[in-house]
Task: structure prediction
Amino acid sequence: MSQQMQGQPMIILGEDAQRMKDESAQDHNIAAARAVADAVRSTLGPKGMDKMLVNSLGDIVVTNDGVTILDEMDIDNPTAEMVVEVAQTQEDEAGDGTTTAVAITGDLLKNSEELLERDIHPTAIISGFDMAATQAREEIDDIAIDIEKDDREILRRVAETAMTGKGAEQHKDALGALVVDAAQAVTVEANDGSTIVDLAYLKIETQTGQSAGDSELLEGAVIDKDPVHEDMPTSFEEADTLLVDEPLELDETEADTQVSVSDPDRIQEFVQQEEQELREMVDQIADLGADVVFCQKGIDDMVQHYLAKEGILAVRRVKRSDVEFLRDVVGAKLVSDLDTAEPSDLGQARVTRDEGEELFYVEGTGEDSHGVTLLLRGSTEHVVDELERGVNDALDVVGAAISSGEVLPGGGAPEIEVARRLREFADGVEGREQLAVEAFADALEVVPRVLAENAGIDPIDALVDLRSAHSEGEVRAGLDVETGDVGDTFEAGVIETPNAKQQGIAAASESATLVLKIDDVISAGDLSTEGDDEGGAPGAGGMGGMGGMGGAM
Ligand code: ADP
Ligand code: MG
Result:
């Protein structure tokens, strides 16, 4: 071969490219990932603090929700983004437990760092983590508690535990009960005997002005819109209801056509023709037998006028998600073309107007009617938004508890128990993987440790008490963050679900291994300063977006 290739390395990277290999790549990545975990840890649990996030437009979000914080943070470090994905996966798969999953990821990586320093190869760590994650899943199945699927008291506690720290405290009894009502309203028994909670038939609406305790569950849909014309009727006991997603207007091209005619008669003719077409739309709607029309697009003034004359209620620019929900509620087909619409496309509903709140209540009256609305109220926009996040988490876990018929004690009890069992399991693991399994066990204990820290309880004392309770067979012993005592958290009503816990551990393990597998970071830009204006501290490098939020964290 040529001379060049023997002596000199072949250069394949551009001039500005930066490269980090092996240890320095791992250190860099682990530091970045841990920085993300540290940023959300302080929100964990009922005593966790909130974060205020301010975006570049000055919009403010105040939240305690792990995934929301990470979504709003402007993170531009690739490894840190992998940790953000843990939260997103957890949100999609389980709906709750996002902060927990991210905190465990952070500690898995922290403990890996120590193993790497002891010259344990990443491959051994990864393989030990895989074993531990699989084992942890089985142990959670083993400690899960069977419940009756309609045990309202337990389900309410599951809801309350998930909402904790998200602005629901003062009204947690009422909201917990409401979440259970809502989940039960959309629960169906499938033919094979399984129970399905179909949250697609549940819609959450928010209203500011009243207190969270005034929230309510309503049959059907709530449409936050006004009638298009003041002379329209606004209430019907039984309305044939038409849903349209085409504009009830003339095509823009037609309306915009320039008429350059000199003959005034021609202009008159043109105007009459347009009027005729609009009039026809109204006739079509009336002929279908519609009493009420919900239109996703706009409605021409002329059409509004004639619909009012026909005694038909029309609402325009209804959100797509609302139109789709209305379809289930009233049992209608969505009409995209009036020319081919049939009377059977219409659904049936009781429509009532709340003048004070300027909303319509639409309650299906036909046989095909599905759907309920959880109307959440709160004093201000920020309050009600955070409440919605809490209620969303709660609905997901209550749904999971209803369909699986299983729950877990909370307050760190499962983490301590699984850690204890993993340490026993590690005894039977050969080689260096054993150390990785033990490191995994230690990482799970981040949950009770941080729950204690955030509540101002000494984390070391708490861990000692918890471990000793579990070694004496108290599988359900967790931390009561109010008192600092260790006890049966299931009895105390701090209740979680196995599904979310298993998902969280799996996601954390996968993401940590993904970070560990990287031995080489090749970047087209500068690695150490990636948008980081403060520079300096290792680990802060590349967390560009976080620098600007220093004051808020
Ligand atoms: P995540 O995003 O992980 O769901 P949260 O802030 O919702 O984070 O906190 C969840 C943790 O808080 C769980 O470990 C749960 O058991 C614990 N927790 C909730 N309520 C209590 C309570 N009253 N006492 C102790 N721990 C609690
Ligand atoms: Mg939670």
Notes: The radius of gyration is 29 Å. Residues 171 and 213 are 5 Å apart (CA to CA).
